[in-house]
């Protein structure tokens, strides 16, 4: 018999699970219930792996700074995608996510803290966690110094100041900085063909929940669990790189806008000087023309008779004034 199913998001947010359209259809609630149970089981396995391997077994603490951020991106994907369909998964992260935030924020630079702050802001806006957990996360990220709440006008003023500080006439963005930023984007995530190929080559088993019914034994289940774990890490790392690339491109856009504004100001100044020097050139050219005209009107001394052509010498004073 043909099964009639409507797909809805899986609790882990990574794929879909099937639900029965018609309770009287041959697939019945039993088959779908088994499938849902299998999805829930493997989803819990993913959560367990994330918690035990990445947070509780010091893998997070031993990882490189950018890898630590990747782990938190992966946790963020699971937490947000599980909010409605599997809230128990979101709760499972609560005991360890605060310590993870505290460790990553203390071991990484301001750029990483900015990314974590964005994640925390999204959780706060979407009420992913209760206020007490959010306060603990803020404390872990910012310490005793909580982020200052600002009015819309203050935010706009700060944005304008930040944009104008780079492009002020006294300190414009340097051409070398722009070149470096453009060169960095040559190796950005969106242009990583190798990762694109790896993502495109992901096995269909990690993307289609309907294939979970092929799991017949523990060995095949563990093998699929390992494949799903690797796929999650690959995609979370790539998503983190894409987020960083977006920030880099935004920063480059601001730099280019400031640089262009400075160049326009410099162009206007140079054009003004050019007009000024054109006027000076016109005045000097007029003086030169008048000078040439006057020189031409002067008598030609070379045409006068040569009064010094003979070999006669003028008498000396002693010759003129002689004693009698």
Automatic annotation (TrEMBL):
An annotated GO BP: mRNA 3'-end processing
Residue ranges the record marks as coiled coil: 260-294
Alphabetized UniProt keyword annotations: Acetylation, Coiled coil, Phosphoprotein
Domain of life: Eukaryota
Domain CID: from-to ranges: 1-145
Gene3D superfamilies reported for this sequence: 1.25.40.90, 6.10.250.2560
InterPro entries, per the entry: CID_dom, ENTH_VHS, RPRD1A/B_C
Gene Ontology MF term list: RNA polymerase II complex binding; RNA polymerase II CTD heptapeptide repeat phosphatase activity
Subunit description: Associates with the RNA polymerase II complex.
Function (record text): Interacts with phosphorylated C-terminal heptapeptide repeat domain (CTD) of the largest RNA polymerase II subunit POLR2A, and participates in dephosphorylation of the CTD.
Entry-linked PANTHER family: CYCLIN-DEPENDENT KINASE INHIBITOR-RELATED PROTEIN, REGULATION OF NUCLEAR PRE-MRNA DOMAIN-CONTAINING PROTEIN 1A
Similarity field: Belongs to the UPF0400 (RTT103) family.
Protein name in the entry: Regulation of nuclear pre-mRNA domain-containing protein
